[in-house]
Amino acid sequence: MKPFRLIHSIIATFNVAGTLLFIVAAFSDCISPNTSVFFAYLGLLFPIFFIINCCFLLYWLMVRKWMLFFVILCSFFVCWKPITHYLPFNPFPINIPQDNTFKILTYNVMAFGYRDHTATNPNAIIQYIADSGADIVCLQEYMVSTQRNFLTQEKVERALYMYPYHYTAPLVQKNQYWIGLAVFSKYPIRSSRKISYDSTFNGSTIHEIDVDGKKLIVVNNHLESFKLTMEDRTKYEDFIKNMNAGTFEGLKETVQRKLGSAFLIRAEQAEIVAEETEKLKEDYLVVCGDFNDTPISYAYRIIKGDMLDAFATSGSGLGITCNQNFFWFRIDHILHSPNMTAYHAKVDNISMSDHYPMWCYLEMN
Q1: Which listed site, 103, 193, 286, 363, has its alpha carbon 20 to 30 Å from 346?
Q2: Which residues of 171-184 are buried (b: 16+ CB within 10 A; e: fewer)?
């Protein structure tokens, strides 16, 4: 019996440490990266801590150690709100109202996969948007060329003719192309402007859209990314597959240098966006786009404020929007003011970009 008791004691010790980390990770978004970037890393690891604690829960159930079983169960109750926000479960779809409802789509198109669009060889991303039936489309990493033999703004507008209103905001301009943000709408766009914050590649725009006589404010965002190269992503993939000291050392420097600085920059951008949206709380408000951060992160929490997350309230599952090299996170979001109701939030599987598109229906109550 003694060897088993020793094994249980060791497992229990790891269990206590894992449970504490799980609880801290669940509420890590309350701490600004400017105070301590350590909590930002914990938030990123939240799903791993959740899986580990689920394994512990099953283990104590099998060996009938009820005290430890109930300790973990209690930790799940304590973290119930972060868990259901990160992993929502809404299995019974509600009928979508016909009146005062529109469909919105957010999509980081990764420069449309760097492909042209022609009648004989259509671009899969542009074709998806055209067929989506969305009323308002918010795009990030939108890139068009000035060269006729590449994808031009004219080609995009012609392909998306069902959207008579659009606004583009170049963030990076070169001689032969520009890349930035874009909004396409079936409803009139009354005004548009950029939110001012210091960045060479990222940005946010605010749009006033007339939806059947109602004023809707849409904020389209592309916040600071981790700027991971393909080599960095390969190191991360090797670490996930092998989990050894050698692969960890190769990843450690990248994590400290790139992820840490990105958390800090994103926090500042999020605070500026939140300050702008705070002034618009009385209107119908949608804040969406590529936040480059998960639902348990300081940047997400600051921007969200008292808004609702469309996927958390009407979607199911992890809703993974980043899809390459084991970076399986929901980092694209659709947030909306409480005077709207979300229906059928979903992430579609189209792999031409390194992001999946997210969409939902919103009812203006």
Answers
A1: 193
A2: beeeeebbbbbbbb
The answer on pLDDT for 40 being more than 50 is yes
Distances (CA, A) of 187 to 183, 190, 215: 11, 9, 11
Residue type, 58: L
Banded pLDDT at 246 (limits 50, 70, 90): low
> What pLDDT is attached to residue 230?
47
Q: Whose structure tokens read 């930790």?
A: 75
Cβ proximity of 321 and 359 under 8 Å: no
- CB-based contacts of 109, cutoff 8 Å, min separation 6: 125, 139, 140, 141, 142, 143, 353, 355
User: Residue holding tokens 């980081």?
Assistant: 108
Helix (H), strand (E), coil (C) string for 162-184: CCCEEEEEEEEECCCEEEEEEEE
Nearest-5° angle of CA 131, CA 135, CA 138?
Answer: 90
